[in-house]
């Protein structure tokens, strides 16, 4: 699980609505061919977890169609875990970014909190809460946290089948 550099993300204009797709919706400007990128600012309300799942599903349907296999369902689950963590423990409006290139889907959720995160230890005595990052760790090919100018971003990556046109 190595660290992966992010492609810079354009910020939303001040007059953009929350959950609106940001202007940098394709990654062609960074010199990478056959890449797709989309970002949304989500409202800091509980319903943003389901909104994030719908946005992931729609983007992957547009980009990869049925060739993505089970990736959309796994991505939806993991994104909803990250958004839920921001809503419970973070600050500000979550920013969801998806980047699909070279057979890899990278999903990132950024917030304004600077507190580092870690997966909880597995213990049968623990309650049901707090296991979202364990799920992310178990189902993704890699994941991590990095500081941003706003706070921090938690990301994960999933392999997308080769026949998927990126």
Quickly list its features.
single chain, 166 residues, alpha+beta, Heat Shock Protein 90, five-stranded antiparallel beta sheet, 3 helices, 27% helix, disordered N terminus
Give me the secondary-structure topology.
Blueprint: E1 35-41, H1 48-64, H2 71-89, E2 95-101, E3 104-111, H3 132-139, E4 142-147, E5 152-159
Antiparallel strand pairs: 1-2, 2-3, 3-5, 4-5
Domain Histidine kinase/HSP90-like ATPase: 43-156
Organism: Microbispora siamensis
InterPro entries: Anti-sigma-factor_SerPK, HATPase_C_sf, HATPase_dom
Judged by helices, strands and strand pairing, the structural class is: alpha+beta
End-to-end gap: 23 Å
Number of strands: 5
Estimate the helix proportion, in percent: 25-40%
Q: SSE order in H/E notation?
A: EHHEEHEE
> What integer value in Å does the Rg equal?
15 Å
Arithmetic mean pLDDT: 77
Strand order of the largest sheet: 1-2-3-5-4
Look up the CATH topology.
Heat Shock Protein 90
Please, how many domains?
Answer: 1
List unreliable stretches of 5+ residues: 1-29
State the shape: globular
Question: How much of the polypeptide forms β-strand, as a percent range?
Answer: 15-25%
Second rung of CATH, namely the architecture: 2-Layer Sandwich
The first-level CATH class is given as Alpha Beta
For the biggest sheet, the summary is:
5 strands, antiparallel
Number of helices: 3
CATH superfamily: Histidine kinase-like ATPase, C-terminal domain
Keywords: Kinase, Serine/threonine-protein kinase, Transferase
Protein name: Histidine kinase/HSP90-like ATPase domain-containing protein
Domain Histidine kinase/HSP90-like ATPase: 43-156
Organism: Microbispora siamensis
